Here is the input.
Amino acid sequence: MTEKELDIPSHFDPEKTGEIWRVEYERLADQAENWARCFGLSPAYEDNFRICLLLVDIQNTFCIPEFELYVGGRSGTGAVDDNTRLCRFIYRYLDKITNIMPTMDTHHPLQVFHRVFLVNKDGEHPDPFTNVTEEDILEGRWEFNPRLGHNLNISSEYGQEYLKHYTRKLKESGKYNLTIWPYHAILGGIGHALVPAIEEAIFFHSLARATKASFHVKGDNPFTEHYSVIGPEVTQGPEGETLAHKDEKIFQTLVNYDAVIIAGQAKSHCVAWTIADLLEDVLATDKSLVEKVYLLEDCTSPVVIPGAIDYTEEADKTFRRFAEAGMHIVDSKDPISNWPGIIQK
Here is the structure.
């Protein structure tokens, strides 16, 4: 790789990273092709050293202040700052990034982690951010909402057994308890969409490098949380029936590319568990692949709800474990040519 980084295009406005606006495709398309000619950018398929940038759930619902699950981190400006740095990173390395893979957390109202799924004896739903344990279900604090049975094609009895099974499986796995999240990332809604500044950068990359982004949708199964891009939290029901499958696409990406760079939201949840699942697959298949993974730590933040929950320490501890396993913790401002294992071209 050359030492020189590309300029940041004049259309990028860091003051707008935390806002919603319409991406002007036609204007950007002409600029991107002119940019490619100006800097002599070759089509992505000609790259000798192939880099995939995996962007986990950089959607309005997580990244725009005042939206449902804005990831502010302890600073309160976490996701906005992360995305400003990430946009600059994409533009500086348009010629190095072969493919961008955005993941899209995709939900419907009637899902196990939304409050409508459960009721108490008085027919009331749990508040957002309630943690529901196996004991809560066994002791009758929360029950399956029988009004949902017809739509979900299950009986009320099965729904209750499922909640017992689901909370027990989460406990056995050592993962977080069932968290009741605010309604978020609803398919077709504005919260589901990519953050405009990131959408703009991805579109610009596609035209400048004559390629297309590889979108990855996850999270629409009503019976399980799906933090990790690779697999849901629970894959089987109480009767051994299959609910969902792991997706091998991310692992195959790691096999097929020379480097995979990961950023997104949130560091404590979807990012962390995606990397954890990826690490598990690597250790079970080819340990040397772990050295292909680069974690942009300054482009991800943990979930922090002031006065309620703070996952900062858990997230930092998890990233230290990834580093000990051989993954590279990197900073977007450091020249990519200085990263270990990145081959010059």
